[in-house]
Amino acid sequence: MSRWWTEAVAALGDVVPLPLAALLVLLAGLLAALAWYFFPAWVPSRLPRPHLPRLRRPRLRLRLPRMRLPRLRLRLPKLRLPRLRRRRPKPRWTGDAPPVPAPRAPEPVAAAPGSRADRLAAEGRYAEAVRERLRDMVRELVDRRVVEVRPGMTVTELTTAAAHVRPRVHRTLHAAATIFSDLWYAQRPATREHDHRMRDLATDLHRELTGDGEHR
Question: For 190, which of 25, 96, 126, 131 could close a Cys bridge (C-beta 3.0–4.6 Å)?
Answer without folding.
Answer: 126
